[in-house]
């Protein structure tokens, strides 16, 4: 019964997430595990942004890591070149992501399916290229160091601190994503996912709703990128790279398209598994790829929707 | 009194004239049917009136205002709402949520309030939900409220589309083959439903192949053939019009019919 609630109600999803967040530090044998968990929370936050774009609104984005990169470099460049506070840089970076998403999304969200995929791919490539080539500001392909974050005079450092900061950010992100899902905006997004023509017929301004989803998704990724940069203390253009964009899409799909819990599970899957497979050395990538294929073959609707169906069938 | 006024509407696709100089008017509470052989341009005409296609020629006026070329979502806001010949259902949403989307225009929340989950959103959700449940009940689908629309049978989805359209508070409702693929019982239900809709003062523009249904419920019938107006008038008049019989049965069929009735 409780398990069923975790899959179906908003409060259940959040409680499950909080329970896992509280549990991990108790069982983690070393700070290494906390750092991996913090990475999961960060990528889950970025994947949640993509859940709103792809899962709710059904608009594919193969360049979402571009926003990860913009957010990350904002907290690197702001304090270094403009003498801005890191926290203010984070906020400005998130704002910049929203603005860029608005300007880029307005023309390209008119495209559909494969064509939108290629256009977003192009956007991601441009961001990565600019970050790698503007060496004077970004440090070029080698990247640049990131100043430490301090909140009201308190320096944010140490694995456990970052664990809680990232967990808090994810929890807030999950809350907002769940809010949207059950709201008039969320219904409009899910409606246009299934039929744009019928959504428009019901009075939904399809173009502006798509754009709103894209902007929100970009802000999520931007904040995730900023947290990633601040936690690692170093950032490279690879953050905005194509592989990261594909990873984000894979997280959303493996976890279960459109599911908030799914985005977190998908992020955990793709962050933890490579760490667990490092003992396989040169076979690591091959085994990871194989596992992804096996999961998609046996759980085609994603991990969380499949589990939900099993739990609900058992409960009824 | 006229609620919908279509004048000289026309469109060509690659040199082929699909709809040519079609005019008609519809009054509130009236059932106005558009019939014609396959490919006569009926659905194209709907797509022109609802702003999905841009007309090459002609004007559409709604409640006196020129709405030619106005985007579909804005037309919905002005009271022009339609259903679709090939179902356009939100398959991943529940039946109730499908109808709730129809209430979108009446919903008074902003993107920010939706994100942060202000109390106004919960209030709005409750109001929308209540209204959608009422409408599901009206079309006889209340028991399917929480079922995913993707799992519902065809005849049920036809009525679900009508409920969703009604949620948008139409002044003019365009129904594109609402009884297609429905069994006799379902057709009966749609017949009764259309009667109820018009009694509420809503104008219904109907495309339908079920001639028994058309002849029974229509106030006036427009016959299209090859994109042009062939005849218009009361069902009885249209049914006996020789040119209509010829269009449906072909020249040869008409001669045969003449001889048979001769």
Automatic annotation (TrEMBL), chain A:
TM spans (from-to): 39-58, 65-82, 88-105, 114-132, 152-180, 211-236, 248-274, 286-307
Pfam families referenced in this protein's UniProt entry, alphabetically: BPD_transp_2
Chief location category: membrane
Subcellular location: Cell membrane
InterPro entries for this protein: ABC_transp_permease (IPR001851), LivM-like (IPR043428)
Protein origin, superkingdom: Bacteria
Name by which UniProt lists this protein: Branched-chain amino acid ABC transporter permease
Membrane topology: Multi-pass membrane protein
Organism per entry: Chelatococcus albus
Keywords noted in UniProt: Cell membrane, Membrane, Transmembrane, Transmembrane helix
From TrEMBL, chain B:
Name recorded for this polypeptide: ABC transporter ATP-binding protein
GO MF annotations, alphabetized: ATP binding
Domain ABC transporter: 4-251
Source organism of the structure: Chelatococcus albus
UniProt keywords, alphabetically: ATP-binding, Nucleotide-binding, Transport
Coiled-coil regions, chain positions: none
InterPro entries, sorted: AAA+_ATPase, ABC_AA/LPS_Transport, ABC_transporter-like_ATP-bd, BCA_ABC_TP_C, P-loop_NTPase
